[in-house]
């Protein structure tokens, strides 16, 4: 998914190096432990955020620069930077649109950059009018567009907005021609806009007798912890006013980058939004690029990541498959491999509720496709990653 782990140190040489480093650190207090180091010249927009600094305090990354625990590396669209732990380390490559916190210094066992992205269950049942947006997100706009899964055969929907289990308003709408299987309703102009500091939830009932609330039966709300986004489950709330201006200022700077295309600016903006828990806005931006016929495979892959993180598994699957298709067209082998791996991880998560502990065949097939590409590229780190997932 979005964040990738470095390979586990398995060889005797690396084990010997680790033990030696540990002994020297204990016996000789003045010895220093090497930090992650930039190899070569970073390409594109590559920045870092010093430990304990706000997210908007970013500095350019330069050749041979070293990083310590707590620093965060940020890459924009069409960017690339390689980090190494020591001369024998093959190096870890960070590609476009990443925000990687450095959580281990060189010399530690199993060093890595950031945890794997959480895939959330949800959006699996096509006969349920499950909520597409907004769900499990913060919002900038006080009158968001409301979207839900279009149920085959449904001719009418009843949409109800709740605030702390209290009905705010209710509307009935006729089923329209859905766009990509999603129905939508503009926030009613005759209803009071959303208020800051309140948790909201949208409920949609279709004429076939199904309700979006059925999805709650299949979601373990503990999976939707409130710490990262300030909301849980299928709820959403406005971003506090104090944060809106800083996010808008940063967004304006992104859109003023002279060296980026308009499409890449929007991709950067979408990633910036997710860094601030604005997943609904981020998904809307990437969908606008998709609807305009974007040919970049990573647009679809990143969109799949955002869907997977929001518990919209069927939409994530669709985006990953599209990413694979685009990568094949443009012969981007690494992008194709990443999309196969992401899709395999998604299939693993979607099969979790079952009692079968074996690797699902769908996931296995995707991992095998990814492995073939990684072997072609001699990416041992990625091969190790998938091997660990498959065991």
Molecular structure report:
This protein has 391 residues and is an alpha+beta fold. Helices cover 34% and strands 19% of the residues. It has helices at residues 12-27, 241-255, 262-275, 279-291, 297-309, 313-330, 333-350, 361-376, 380-390, and strands at 36-43, 46-49, 59-60, 66-67, 72-75, 80-84, 92-94, 98-101, 131-133, 137-139, 146-149, 156-163, 166-174, 182-185, 200-206, 236-238. The strands form 5 sheets. Strands 4-1-6-7 form a 4-stranded antiparallel β-sheet, with no helix packed on it. The protein has a 4-stranded antiparallel β-sheet with strand order 3-2-5-8, with no helix packed on it. Strand 12 and strand 13 (166-174) form a beta hairpin. Helix 5 runs antiparallel to helix 6 (313-330). The chain is globular and about 60 Å long. Residues 2-33 and 107-115 have low confidence and may be disordered.
Provide a compact summary of the structure.
The chain is of the alpha+beta class and 391 residues long. It has helices spanning 12-27, 241-255, 262-275, 279-291, 297-309, 313-330, 333-350, 361-376, 380-390; strands at 36-43, 46-49, 59-60, 66-67, 72-75, 80-84, 92-94, 98-101, 131-133, 137-139, 146-149, 156-163, 166-174, 182-185, 200-206, 236-238. The protein starts with 11 loop residues before the first helix and ends with a helix.
